[in-house]
Write a structure and sequence with these properties.
- With 121 residues, the protein is α+β, with helices and mostly antiparallel strands.
- It has helices at 3-20, 52-63, and strands at residues 31-38, 48-50, 69-78, 81-89, 97-107, 110-118.
- The protein has a 6-stranded mixed β-sheet with strand order 2-1-6-5-4-3.
- It comes from Phyllobacterium phragmitis.
């Protein structure tokens, strides 16, 4: 694994852990000024957030939600791209979950792009 891939993986793992552990403050040092976020909803393209403050505010709101439980299925990195395959649950019922993926881009140790996708039915 290249040095760039190792840095990317570390940043992406730290990003995901903020959601699993409900620690929105852990996102503060991870998001770049020129960040762009494409959310998973609404279909078909998802809401677009541009700039550090907009992306950070959205992600912090999600990470602080106690009724959402994210679990990583796989985290990988190649160069400046990080991929998080995840599962999201909002109750104990089997039907109350979705699976998805975030494709991240890291530049200078900060997330500058987050593209979110979910499995649809």
């Amino acid at each position: 694994m290249t040095t760039e891939s190792k840095v990317t993986r570390d940043i992406v793992e730290r990003f995901h852990n903020a959601f699993e552990k409900h620690r929105p403050e852990d996102l503060d040092d991870l998001i770049g000024e020129s960040c762009v976020l494409e959310n998973t909803a609404p279909a078909p393209d998802g809401a677009l957030y541009e700039g550090r403050e907009a992306c950070l505010a959205f992600w912090k709101k999600v990470a602080s939600s106690a009724n959402l439980a994210f679990t990583a299925e796989e985290i990988s990195a190649m160069g400046d791209r990080g991929i998080i395959r995840w599962q999201l649950r909002w109750s104990e019922r089997e039907a109350d979950r979705i699976r998805g993926v975030n494709i991240m881009r890291v530049r200078d140790g900060k997330i500058v792009e987050g593209l979110g996708y979910v499995k649809g039915g």
